[in-house]
């Protein structure tokens, strides 16, 4: 089913989407949406918008400065490298004196 609304010369089209999600996740998501005073559909839609905007915002190699382009790939990290753990260890090491 599709609903077509014309609001301020913008065409908004809502389409139903069926997802298969673990029941416990759905319960938690519904509780979160209720606390936020929003529908679960609105929460999911905003999440998907945020994710796709982040993907669009990633700079391509052409958008990087020449200095950054030269540095790209110069550091090889292990596949299991955890940036958050490394940062946490560095901060703890600096301030835990």
Which features does this protein show?
97 residues; alpha+beta; two-stranded antiparallel sheet; 12% strand
Bin the helical content. 40-55%
Strand segment tally: 2
Extract low-pLDDT stretches. none
Please trace the helix and strand order, writing H or E for each element. EEHHHH
Q: Taking all residues together, what is the mean pLDDT?
A: 80
Through-space gap between termini: 62 Å
Domain module count: 1
The portion of residues forming beta strands comes to: 5-15%
Largest sheet: 2 strands, antiparallel
Shape: extended
| Strand arrangement across the biggest beta sheet | 1-2
Compute the gyration radius: what is it?
Answer: 21 Å
Structure write-up:
With 97 residues, the chain is α+β, with helices and mostly antiparallel strands. It has one domain. The chain has 4 helices and 2 strands, in the order ββαααα. The protein has a two-stranded antiparallel sheet.
Outline of this structure?
The protein contains 4 helices and 2 strands, in the order E-E-H-H-H-H. With 97 residues, it is α+β, with helices and mostly antiparallel strands.
What is this structure's SSE topology?
Layout lengths: L1 E6 L2 E6 L7 H14 L3 H18 L8 H6 L11 H13 L2
Antiparallel strand pairs: 1-2
């Amino acid at each position: 089913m599709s609903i077509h609304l014309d609001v301020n010369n913008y065409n908004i089209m809502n389409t139903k989407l069926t997802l298969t999600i673990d029941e416990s996740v759905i319960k938690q998501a519904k509780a979160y949406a209720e606390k936020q005073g929003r529908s679960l559909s609105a929460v999911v839609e905003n999440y998907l918008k945020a994710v796709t905007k982040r993907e669009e915002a990633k700079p391509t190699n052409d958008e990087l400065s020449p200095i950054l382009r030269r540095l790209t790939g110069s550091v090889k990290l292990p596949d299991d490298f955890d940036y958050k753990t490394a940062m946490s260890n560095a901060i703890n090491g600096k301030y835990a004196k």
